[in-house]
Amino acid sequence: MNAEKRLSELGLELPPVPAPIGSYVTVKQQGSLLYLSGSGPIVGGKALFQGKVGAEVTPEQGYEAAKISLLNMLAILKDHLGDLDRIKSVVKLLGMVACADGFYNHPSVINGASDLLVEIFGEKGRHARSAIGVYSLPMNIPVEIELIVEVE
C-alpha cells in the first residue's frame, strides 16, 4: 500500500514538518522502533484549535484536532524516513485530551488519529492505544498525540 497515494485519495496532504517547541527532538530511533514526541494541531507555528474539549472545543472539533496532530506526526516520519512506506507497523499511540470537568469521552476524540492511521495504512495502522484526559496542554491545544512505530 502506498501511504502517500492513500493520503491523496483521502484529500489530505502533509503539513510542513513541525519544529520542536522545547528542548527535545521530534523523533528518536532505537533499532527498528521510532519514538515520536508529542504533537498537536499546530501548523506553521499556529494552533488551529485552542481550548478544552467539552467547553470551548466540541468533541467533533477534537476529533479533527487529533487528525491534524497525526498528520504532523506523518510529516515528521516522512522527513525522517524519506518514505512512509518504510513503516512496518504502528505499535502504540498515546492520546491526551485537554478537557472540561465532566467530559469522559476521550476515546472518541482520539479516534480521529486512530481512524486515520487505519485508513492510510490498513492493518499496519492498527495499534495499541491509551486515551487520557488532562487539565491542560501546551499552547492551550485540545489534543496531543505520541506515537511509536516499527520501521523496515
Compressed to H and E, one letter per element, the order equals: HEEEEHEHEE
Q: Roughly how many Å is the radius of gyration? A: 14 Å
Portion in helices: 25-40%
CATH architecture annotation name: 2-Layer Sandwich
Mean pLDDT, nearest integer? 97
Euclidean distance between termini CA atoms: 14 Å
| CATH fold-type name | 60s Ribosomal Protein L30, Chain: A
Report on this structure.
The chain has a single domain (about 30-150), classed as 2-Layer Sandwich (60s Ribosomal Protein L30, Chain: A). The chain contains three helices and seven strands, in the order H-E-E-E-E-H-E-H-E-E. The chain has helices at about 5-10, 60-80, 105-120, and strands spanning about 25-30, 35-40, 40-45, 45, 85-100, 130-135, 145-150. The strands form two sheets. The chain has a five-stranded mixed sheet. Strands 3-4 form a two-stranded antiparallel sheet. Helix 3 (about 105-120) links the parallel strand 5 and strand 6. Helix 2 crosses helix 3. The protein is globular and about 40 Å long. The model has no long low-confidence stretch (mean pLDDT about 95).
